[in-house]
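This protein record is not my work; I was only asked to verify it. Would you go through it and say whether the fold makes sense for this chain? Here is the record exactly as it was handed to me.
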Amino acid sequence: MKHISTRTALIAGPLAWAIGLAFAASASVAAPAELATVQVAAASGAQANAFDGVVEAVRQTVIAAQVPGAVVAVQVKAGERVKAGQVLLRLDARAAEQQAAAAAAQVQAAHAAQEAATREFERQKQLFQQNYISQAALERAESQHKSAQAQAAAQLASAGAARTESGFYTVKAPYDGIVSEVSVVLGDMAMPGRALVTVYDPAQLRVTASVPQTAAPEPGATPLIEVPGTAPARITPLRWQLLPSVDAATHTVQLRLELPPGTALSPGMFARAWLPVRGEAGQRIAVPASAVVRRAELTGVYVIGTDGRALLRQVRLGPVNGNQVEVLSGLKAGERVALDAQSAAKGR
């Protein structure tokens, strides 16, 4: 048994040494003589932190039903532009129209009764002046006249309410915008409060982000907006607003950044809010975009060591400015990185 253990130890020693050499070789490669490199330089500027946000419409309306009724016509679809007052859909309004017609007939009857009471009151006044009737009879005629006037006014108001309610069966756009969602189809039953159509105004968009209360921008600061996959890379908001309330659970405050008009974005898109670090200014480090290598969840650059070997180092990137990418952490000024990450990777 002792003899076997000795041989195992003799074999394990060279094997561990070989594994260590293989691991070191996998972490760095010798930089070829023709590999182009660049020295990282720092430029003065304000440091910024990024916070995830979402694009929202300043005016977005979920139009709901005010009265019950079956959907008999859907005249718009998602993605369609609409004008203010344009009909979006119609509900079955036959019963409401009949009630409005009955109310109109009752108004006519009330007007006729009012005219009869007015003529009767005039005759009673003439008879009273000739001492043919008593004061009590005149007062009764006056009371009937006023009662007929009140009934006519009540019927007129009731008819107006019936006409107004019949208008609820036609759903119209409140302003110029885009239909983002149609929540019902032909034949659905609309109930009060049920969402029918969602409309938003594309001319007024903003980015909303929740930021820690310690990172909230100071008055006079200039935050920037980044929407990945769109141009320009960074957008300066027209104005920004910090809501006065702080979430007690997350200790974050909501930041709203108003986008300039003409921005071709849609509500719900992912965005980032870049906020300058409060009360601090430092050195900003940027590298060419070609120097960045991405492998699965790893983002890094090849750093040239003192021995001339290229070592892959993980970095955290910031916003993109042209062909330059800001490096938030992982690099120091004065270090050299490979300009072509693909060529550096092939040297393995």
In short: Residues 1-27 have pLDDT under 50 and may be disordered. The chain is about 30% helix and 35% strand. The CA atoms of residues 107 and 210 lie 58 Å apart.
